[in-house]
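We now fix the convention by which a protein and its fold are recorded. Think of the row as the fold of the chain written in a discrete alphabet. Here is one such record, which you should read through line by line.
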Amino acid sequence: MTQSHDEFLRRQAAELLQMERLLEGKPQELSANYDKAERSCPLFADVGAGDMRALGVALPAGRVEAGIRLLAASLGKTIERDASFINLILPNGPRFSAALPPVSDGPTFSIRLHWRAVRPLDDFIAAPWQLSVIDEAIRQRFNIVTIGVTGAGKTTLLNALISHLLKASPNERLGIIEDEPELQIAANNAMRRLARGRADMRRHVREMLRIRPDRFIVGEVRRAEALDFSKAFNTGHSGDFTTIHANTARGALLRLESLVEEVGIPPSLRLIAESVDLLIFISRRPDGARGIEEIVRVEGCAPDGGFLLKEIDRRCERCVALSR
């Protein structure tokens, strides 16, 4: 397809899904569910505070399905019959996720918008000591993992951390690996890689080792790349960053264990403990603001076989062992 044809398809899809009108209020997330009785898709929006709100608008289901298919075609995506999921990054950065029958009862989609401008790290800081801890961790080249649930702001915080790093060290060589291009990193010396097909995250991690980045940045650890990520973080590439989905800072280590185990290899607590230095947990508060809730230092393995962690507070005096 030509670029002009792809653009035509995108415009047709946007018109069918009424994207321009629905996104003009700049919601953080827009969702279309399926109403079987009405054969329509009622719309809901997350405006950044409180629960998602019904917009009082419903699009015909046939129109939504046609829009989803056109959007996929415009970006060269194939919708598989037995796995009819679509995940796309739209122009200007919003993440578009959709599902069609038979894997859903009707056409549904969600659009998540990211902050277009990188926010300063101060926006996430609840107390001055947190900034001091993070500054010192970056200076000492700790391997840092940002943690949170869906929509908590993990990627937004990671953008802020990298921007903070580059203010002090603008010439560091960064190796960036993502499955979708979400990180907004304005670095003088950066290599970007995208996971596609056989060039998955695991392969990219191994290949990136060959070109000597000063720091690794992995957009999010979701699958078997957790093993390669842990090994890479133990190969002299200190000062690295990634994100992981978990409900607590401690839960991130258990999640890493689980992902490594999915490769068919018994997880090594020592490998994980030596590859991660600092855990930063971020959450979304009831007013919609994102903030750092917890900072935890990984100090090794505890005598009982768990992880030895120090939960950092103003006094930095509490040490807790995470049992398996």
